[in-house]
Design brief:
The protein is α+β, with helices and mostly antiparallel strands. The protein is built from eleven helices and twelve strands. It is globular.
């Protein structure tokens, strides 16, 4: 399993608090690594105002809507300057204080992998993969005269797989003199995967990253088996609103009443099931939207 370097290569977190709160948390967690923030003379897309730190960090605030929230944006170099456990501490602080937040994009990178862009390109072309992403999104950029950053070789390649508008996107390139494997998560997927990885112990990040990569794509090659080294899939699913509400109800039933329910079913020889169904149907009007959602989905 390759992990000479692995970690966050881009992170964007929306925090639903005002600039005073967000500025104080920046000072608490990140100022020692990215310096004091300075006011910019302009805002950014969706925000009227912005403050910036070193290495491209941006704290965007005063959105062009009535809701108050800020966006913490860490590009690659800023991510590299902050110790991984600090990101984890930041998110745990938000969790512990019931602060609403959402990870809207997170990229992970793994360096010095035991394959190159050509290997990835050839495997996809030969359909030696498992992925819901269509092969038509495969693209390769080749610069035959560009020097690699180490200066030892000439010629760089980057392979892209997936759409930049989708929730998952893959990049594999060698412009730094070694092969870097990057996977980008956006939308609902970024919040799901980002929380799972970043809220766990840093020692488990590599495995959790690979599990979510395996959800996205698997190569049927020897070099991929060496890369993942027995790591399985996360089997993470992004739920729709209706599915999430239903899952919450199922969880409540299992966790809160399953023991009593099992006892009553046994004592009544199962007769209670019909009675509960009849009474329950009478009360489903309160959840018409949920029933409509699943009825529409099935139709």
């Amino acid at each position: 399993m390759y992990k000479d370097y692995f970690g966050i290569d881009y992170l964007r977190v929306t925090v639903h608090e005002d600039i005073g709160f967000c500025q104080s948390q920046y000072v608490r967690f990140f100022q020692n690594y990215l310096s004091s923030l300075i006011d910019n003379t302009h805002g950014s897309q969706g925000f009227r105002k912005m403050r910036s730190g070193l290495l491209g960090f941006r704290l965007k605030y005063d959105p062009s809507v009535k809701n108050k929230y800020c966006s913490f944006e860490f590009p690659g170099q800023a991510c590299g300057a902050v110790p991984p456990d600090v990101f984890s501490e930041f998110l745990h602080f938000l969790e512990d204080h019931d602060i609403r937040y959402k990870i809207t994009r997170v990229d992970f990178a793994i360096d010095n992998v035991g394959f190159n862009p050509d290997d990835v390109y050839d495997a996809i072309m030969e359909n030696k993969i498992r992925s819901l992403t269509t092969r038509e999104t495969l693209r390769i950029d080749y610069s035959p005269l560009q020097k690699q950053e180490t200066g030892e070789k000439v010629g760089t390649k980057t392979v892209y797989f997936g759409s930049r508008q989708s929730e998952r996107f893959l990049r594999v390139y060698d412009k730094r003199g070694y092969t870097r494997f990057e996977v980008e998560f956006k939308g609902k997927r970024s919040d799901l995967v980002g929380r799972e990885v970043l809220l766990s112990s840093v020692s488990s990040w590599h495995t959790r990253i690979l599990e979510n990569v395996n959800d996205f794509i698997e190569f049927f090659t020897e070099w991929w088996r060496d890369f993942v080294s027995g790591v399985g899939r996360a089997f993470n699913k992004v739920y729709s609103a209706g599915e999430k509400v239903l899952q919450q109800k199922v969880d409540w039933l299992v966790n809160s009443v399953s023991r009593t329910f099992a006892e009553v079913v046994q004592l009544t020889n199962g007769k209670i099931l019909d009675e509960m169904l009849r009474e329950g149907v009478k009360k489903t009007a309160r959840d018409e939207r949920l029933l409509y959602y699943f009825g529409k989905q099935v139709a």
